[in-house]
Amino acid sequence: MALFDLLGRSWTLGVLWQLADRSLTFRELQDRCEGVSPTVLNRRLKELRESGLLDRDAHGYCLVPLGHELFGLLKPFGKWSESWAAGLSDGDTGSRPESVE
Question: 2-74 architecture in CATH?
Answer without folding.
Answer: Orthogonal Bundle (1.10)
